[in-house]
């Protein structure tokens, strides 16, 4: 018996009445079959080819040469890429990442066949985005594109990754200046708040905690003057900390004093009670409500409305470095790697830069020190 062969079928645009339609043709049980897939005005060629591939998948099953599915970019994103990434993404990452992919990438490449997209098209896309976006979101788009095609390669759908060598354009729009707070601004920042908000701000500035970690704290997590970060909350959903690792952190004296004062007002002081509960008590306060209702309005009045929790994290890293705190100790306290700590969160102010240049100049030029009076007498 003749072995059944793998087939791809054929696709043609034909006139059907007053409209042009996509007509698929293939062999089945020794006979030639055909089917109208849809009007050319309503269906792109890439979508028609994808539909034909899906029809032939069952026919080709069991053939020695296994059929590789044909996806449009949108089909691969929704059917393979996002379901796979959701397995490891935290809720906060999934929310922002899916929004970026669906609002930027799918509208641009959604109807194209995945395997037909070329590097030049992707680079042109990034160049256009650079006209409206800063380098950071453009770099994120590049990262997502590379991830999509890398996964497609691992599934055997492509021979190479067209996004592997993409470049972030040099002339992107200027981004937001997320500089850290100065020492004076930190004091002004804290003075404007009531007890609860001041304690939360201190935990971010001095203890280096993320907002989701702060709001997920329970009283048993802050016993013995140690902060045990074992969970975080994002939009009412609890999960492990961002890097998946629990950690213990120290508390500054000022934070300890405020925490003891706040404990005396606790609505639920039990070990499992939340340190910062909502009005329901059994749930933590919402980050969005906390920021919009209680923190940002007061900060706007003093000109610091731009200093979000992301700025506070940057402030912790930068002021720790300026104070001479060991970088490894500081990164362990914040709960991330040393590389991220130094490259992303830590910045140097002008005072540190001038001190560094003076130190360099003194080391290179080795200026002679002025002689003491006693030394001058001896030489005379």
Summarize the structure in short:
The protein is mostly helical. It has 15 helices and seven strands.
H/E topology pattern: EEEHHHHHHHHEEEEHHHHHHH
Structural class: mainly alpha
- Beta-strand residue fraction: 5-15%
Number of helices: 15
What is the tally of beta strands? Answer: 7
Q: Report the average pLDDT across residues.
A: 86
Q: Distance between termini?
A: 117 Å
| Spatial strand sequence of the major β-sheet | 1-2-3
Spans of 5+ residues with little confidence (pLDDT < 50)? none
Proportion of helical residues: 40-55%
Architecture overview:
By secondary structure, this protein is mostly helical. Among the domains are: 51 residues; 82 residues, Tyrosine recombinase, N-terminal domain (DNA polymerase, domain 1), CATH 1.10.150.130; 125 residues. 48% of the residues lie in helices and 11% in strands. It is built from 15 helices and 7 strands. It has a 3-stranded antiparallel beta sheet with strand order 1-2-3, covered by helices on one side. A two-stranded antiparallel sheet has the order 4-7. Strand 1 and strand 2 form a beta hairpin. The longest helix has 20 residues. The mean pLDDT is 86.
Could you list some keywords that capture this structure?
elongated; mainly alpha; DNA polymerase, domain 1; 380 residues; three-stranded antiparallel beta sheet; 48% helix
């Amino acid at each position: 018996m003749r072995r059944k062969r793998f087939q791809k079928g054929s696709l043609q645009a034909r006139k059907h009445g007053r409209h042009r339609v996509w007509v698929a043709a293939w062999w089945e049980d020794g006979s030639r079959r055909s089917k109208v897939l849809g009007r050319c005005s309503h269906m792109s060629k890439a979508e028609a080819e994808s539909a034909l591939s899906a029809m032939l998948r069952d026919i080709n099953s069991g053939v020695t040469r296994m059929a590789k599915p044909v996806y449009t970019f949108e089909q691969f994103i929704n059917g393979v890429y996002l379901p796979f990434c959701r397995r490891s993404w935290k809720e906060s990452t999934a929310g922002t990442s899916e929004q970026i992919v669906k609002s930027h990438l799918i509208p641009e490449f959604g109807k194209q066949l995945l395997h037909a997209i070329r590097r030049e098209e992707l680079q042109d896309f990034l160049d256009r985005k650079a006209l409206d976006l800063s380098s950071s979101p453009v770099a994120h788009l590049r990262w997502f594109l590379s991830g999509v095609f890398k996964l497609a390669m691992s599934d055997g759908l492509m021979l190479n990754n067209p996004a592997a060598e993409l470049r972030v354009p040099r002339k992107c729009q200027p981004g937001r200046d997320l500089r850290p707070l100065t020492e004076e601004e930190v004091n002004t920042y804290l003075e404007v708040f009531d007890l609860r908000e001041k304690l939360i701000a201190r935990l971010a500035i001095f203890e280096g905690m993320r907002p989701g970690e702060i709001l997920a704290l329970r009283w048993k997590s802050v016993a013995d003057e140690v902060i045990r970060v074992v969970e975080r909350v994002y939009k009412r959903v609890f999960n492990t900390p961002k890097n998946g690792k629990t950690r213990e952190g120290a508390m500054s004296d000022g934070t300890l004093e405020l925490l003891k004062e706040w404990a005396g007002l606790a609505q639920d002081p039990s070990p499992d009670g939340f340190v910062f509960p909502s009005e329901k008590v059994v749930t933590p306060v919402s980050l969005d409500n906390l920021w919009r209702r209680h923190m940002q309005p007061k900060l706007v009045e003093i000109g610091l409305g731009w200093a979000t929790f992301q700025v506070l994290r940057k402030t912790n890293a930068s002021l720790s470095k300026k104070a001479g705190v060991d970088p490894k100790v500081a990164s362990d306290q914040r709960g991330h790697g040393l590389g991220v700590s130094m490259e992303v969160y830590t910045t140097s102010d002008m005072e540190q830069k001038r001190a560094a240049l003076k130190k360099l100049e003194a080391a290179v030029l080795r200026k002679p020190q002025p002689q003491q009076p006693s030394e001058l007498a001896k030489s005379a």
